Amino acid sequence: MFSIVNIRVGFYLALRQLRRASRWTTSLIVFVMLLTFLNLVVVTGLLVGIVAGISNQFRIQQTGDVMVTALDTKDYIENSPQILSFLETLPQPQVISARYGTSGTIEANYYSRIDLNEKPNETGASIVGIGPVVENDFSNLSKYVKEGSYLSENDYDTVLLGPQFVDRYSFGEQPGLTPLKNVYPGTKIRLTINGNTREVIVKGILDVPANSPLAARVFMPISEVRQLMGRTDYAVNEIAILLKPGTDGVAFRDLLKRSGVGDKAKVQTFEEGIPNGVAEVQNTFAMIGNAIGSIGLAVAAITIFIVIFINAITRRKFIGILKGIGISGETIIVAPLDGTLVRIMLIVLTTLIAGYLPSRMIVRKNTLDSILGRN
Amino acid sequence: MIEVKNLVKSFKDGPIETRVLKGIDFTAKAGEFIAIMGRSGAGKSTLLYQMSLLDEPTSGEIRINGKEAHLMSEHEKMSFRLKEFGYVFQDYALLPELTAIENVALPLLMQGLSKNEAENKAKMALERVGVGSRLNNLPSQLSGGEQQRVSVSRAIAHKPSILFADEPTANLDRESSSRVMEIFKELHGAGQTIIMVTHEDEYSRFADRIVTLDDGRIISEKFNK
User: Fold this and answer.
1) Number of domains in chain A
2) The domain B2-223 belongs to what CATH superfamily?
3) CA of A19: which chain B residue's CA is closest?
4) Phi, psi (rounded to 5 degrees) for A67
5) Does residue A152 lie in a domain region?
6) Interchain proximity A371–B55, CB inside 8 Å
7) Could A328 and B107 be called an inter-chain contact, meaning their C-beta atoms sit closer than 8 Å?
8) Which chain A positions have a beta carbon within 8 Å of B115's beta carbon?
9) Quick one: closest CA in A to B87, which residue?
10) Does ipTM top 0.90?
C-alpha cells in the first residue's frame, strides 16, 4: 500500500538521487523527456490549433455563429426582407450581414490587348455584394486592406479584390482562377455578371492567408451587385449572424427553425456551415492529430519505460539494499517516480504507467539475489 | 531469540539441484555474540541470510522471538527487518547518492520518524562508531573502514534486537578490521545480540560462541571463555 511514509521517503531518496546523479545523465533524460513531451503535446496541439484556427477564421470572416442560406432548390433566400426584419427584432444577434453572392468574371489589361487571338487576362470570380459598414462591423474587412482603401456605402463602380486575383499576392493558379497582372488600386477592370459587363475600378486589395474565405472573393456594395445580377426583389443569398458573447449558437439556430425561418431557408451553425472542403481539411487534420497523439503517447510510454527500466536495472543492487534494510517496495517504486516528477511534472500519468511496471518487476526479484547481483 | 530447526536450502540450476544447507538446527539467545565460521562454500552466509529473513529457506522452521518467521508474508518480513534487525554487509551496501548521515537516517525515516529526529539519531549512531566528523560525506569520499563503520551505524541506529554481519572485515585492512571488531565488542558489551559470519579466526575470538559449518552441516560448536 502507498502510504504517506512511502511517498515521503520516496521523495527523500528521489531528490537526493537527482541532486547527486550525473548532470549529463540527468540532462539526457530531461532532454529525451522534453522531446517526448514536445512530440506528444506540441505537435498535437499545433494541429488542434490549426483546425481551431481554420474554423474560427470561417466564423469571424464568413459564417458568423449562425448562417442563413438559400434552400438547395432556390438561388436566393425567399422572403429575405421579412427574415431580416424578424432578425432585427431578436435580442441575440450582435451584427447581421446580408450578402448577395454570384459568380462572374473579371478581366484586366483589356485596353492594352491588341491581338484578339491573344488569351485575355481574365478569371472566374465569386462576386459578393455587401453593406460596407455592416460587413466591416461583422468581419472587420477594412483591416485586411493592404493596398488602396476600403469600400464606402456610396461607392459605385468600385471593387475590393481578394489576394488570389492579384498576381503579386496570389498563392498560385487554381483551376478556373488566373491571377490578374498589373492590377493596383485605381486600375480599371472589366466585371461581367449574368452577361452584364461593367468597367469598375479596383479600390483596394486584401491581404489574407490562402485558407481565408476572403482570399478568392470580389467585394462590391450591395446596390451595384443587385443591378448587375438584375435582381429587383431584395432577396439576398446569405445572412451571416454574429451573436452576442455567451449566446448559444445551437439554441439560436433552433429558435430560427422553430420560428419559420427554417421553412424558407437553410439555417446552420458555423460548424455546420463550413464548406465541405474545409470540413474535410479539418477532419484530416484532426485524424492526423489523433494519429500523432496516439503514436506520441506510445513513444512517450516506451521512452519513459526504457529510461526507468535501465535506471532500475542499473540500480538493482541498491534496490536490493533498500529492501534488505526494510525500505518497502512501494517506497522504492515511488522514488524513481518522484525523480521523474521533479524532472517533468507534466507527464506524470505516462510516468506512472510506464515507470511502475519495470520498478515492480525489479522489486519482485529475490532480495538476496539483488544484493548479491545474482540473476 | 532465534531458533532454527531442520533448515534446508537448495538452489536449482535447470535440472541440477544443489543443497547448500542440509538440515541445520541452531539456537541463538538474546545478548549472545555468535561467530559462524567455515571454509568457502560451507553455507555460512546462506545460513545467515535465511535467519535474517533476506532469503526463503527451501524447508525447515525459523522462530524469532517466538514468531514463526518462515510463515511470514514478504510485507511482514520487511517490517521485521526494518524494526528488529540490523545488517552489516561485506561490501558495506551504502547508497552512493546519500551522505553518511542520510544513509543512516533512511531506515529511521521509514519507521516514521521526522527528518530531524531521524538525522539526530543517525548523528548519534555515527558519533558512537567514530565517524561523527564525516556526516556529510558521500560513501565515495570515505575510506573502506569508514564506510563499514557507517554501515554499522545504519545497522544499530534503530536499536535492533539482532545485528547480522556478513564478513564485515573481509574488505578491510587490519587496522580498520580491528576498529570494526572493537565496535562489535562494545555493542555486545552493551547487550546487543550479534550473529556474524567470518572466515578469520582472529576475529572469531570476539564471539561468545563459534559455530563451524562444513558442507551444509554444523560440525562443531565452541564456547569462548
Assistant:
1) 2
2) P-loop containing nucleotide triphosphate hydrolases (3.40.50.300)
3) B97
4) -125, 130
5) yes
6) no
7) no
8) 12
9) A325
10) no
- In A344-353, which positions are buried (b, 16+ CB within 10 angstroms) versus exposed (e)? beebeebbee
Helices and strands of chain A, counted as H and E runs = 14, 10
A202 C-beta neighbours (distance < 10 Å), count: 24
Among A325, A326, A368, beta carbon nearest to B49: A368
pTM (2 d.p.): 0.59
Q: Which three cell numbers stand for residue A276?
A: 465541405
Of A197, A220, A243, the domain-final residue: A243
Apex CA B97: angle with CA B95 and CA B98, to 5°? 70
Look up the domain containing A104 and give its range.
93-243
Nearest residue on chain A to B152, judged by CA atoms? A325
CB contact under 8 A, B93 and A371: yes
Tell whether B97 lies on the interface with A, counting CB pairs under 8 A: yes
Q: Do B54 and A367 touch (CB under 8 A)?
A: yes
- Measured distance CA(A26)–CA(B11) in Å, rounded: 39
What pairs with residue A221 in β-bridges? A130
What is the Cα Rg of chain B in Å? 17
Cell of B171: 574488505
pLDDT tens across B134-189, in order?
Answer: 999 999 999 998 999 999 899 988 889 899 999 998 888 888 888 888 988 988 99
Q: Does residue A97 fall inside a structural domain?
A: yes
Q: Are residues A228 and A117 part of one domain?
A: yes
What the block records as the C-alpha cell of A44 is 498535437
